[in-house]
Amino acid sequence: MIVLDVPPHKVVRIDAEHVDEALELVRPMLQLSVQHLAGFRSLDEMVESLRDGWRDWQLWLIVTPEQTVGAFILTMERLGGELVATFELLAGVDAQAWIGPLIGKFEAYLAGMFGVTQARVIGRKGWERWLSRHGYEPSHFVTSKRLVRECLPLQTIHTIES
User: Fold this and answer.
1) 48 within some domain
2) Which of 121, 12, 123, 131 lies closest to 62, judged by CA?
3) Does 47 or 148 have the greater pLDDT score?
4) How many beta carbons lie within 10 A of that of residue 50, not counting itself?
5) Which of 54, 88, 95, 158 is the most buried (most CB within 10 A)?
6) C-alpha closest to that of 80 among 49, 113, 117
7) CATH number of the structural domain spanning residue 77
8) Sheet of strand 82-92: strand arrangement
9) Is 60 inside a domain boundary?
10) H/E run at residue 4
11) What 3-state DSSP class applies to 48?
12) Whole-Å CA distances, 142 to 40, 119, 123
């Protein structure tokens, strides 16, 4: 377990063997965030990666002495020669109280400990307002549509055979 002190909060990385018990505390807030990510991974898919104990999938909790106020799932991957940390889910209550103090210290931790050169957040549109105050800018636009099998008449689909 890794604990970063960001008074009055602590940011705690949950080890793979404790993912299930930690999720009991934060599943409702994370599930709410997943609902805003239609078309991305489900929470169950993310939990499987967390349970596998991969270093590049991590569950973090934001806690006060009284309660757990936030959680995020962090992934790390090499993209274009850079190590990129992605907040796959970022959820919590009273984010105004902890996002500002937390973000800078956590970015410094990622850069210093792992050599992360870029951080990004995948989440609901509301996070854009909070994170823009800390140097984050929108970089991609994602829109989605759920398709049903009957969208395109099968006779209009042609396959090319070699």
Assistant:
1) yes
2) 12
3) 47
4) 22
5) 88
6) 117
7) 3.40.630.30
8) 2-6, 9-14, 57-63, 68-79, 82-92, 118-121
9) yes
10) strand 2-6
11) helix
12) 10, 18, 11
Burial class (CB in 10 A: 0-12, 13-18, 19+), 140: exposed
Are 136 and 100 in contact by the 8 Å Cβ rule? The answer is no
Contacts of residue 1, Cβ cutoff 8 Å, sequence gap at least 6: 12, 13, 14, 15, 18
87-138 tens-digit pLDDT: 888 888 888 788 888 888 999 999 999 999 999 887 667 777 778 888 888 7
Query: In one letter, which amino acid is 148?
Result: V
Contact 54, 88 (CB under 8 A): no
Domain that holds residue 15: 2-156
Q: Which pLDDT score, from 0 to 100, does residue 3 have?
A: 92
d(CA 86, CA 76): 6
Query: In whole angstroms, what is the distance from residue 17 CA to residue 95 CA?
Result: 27
| Residue 162 lies inside a defined structural domain of this protein | no
Residues in the chain: 162
Domains held by the chain: number = 1
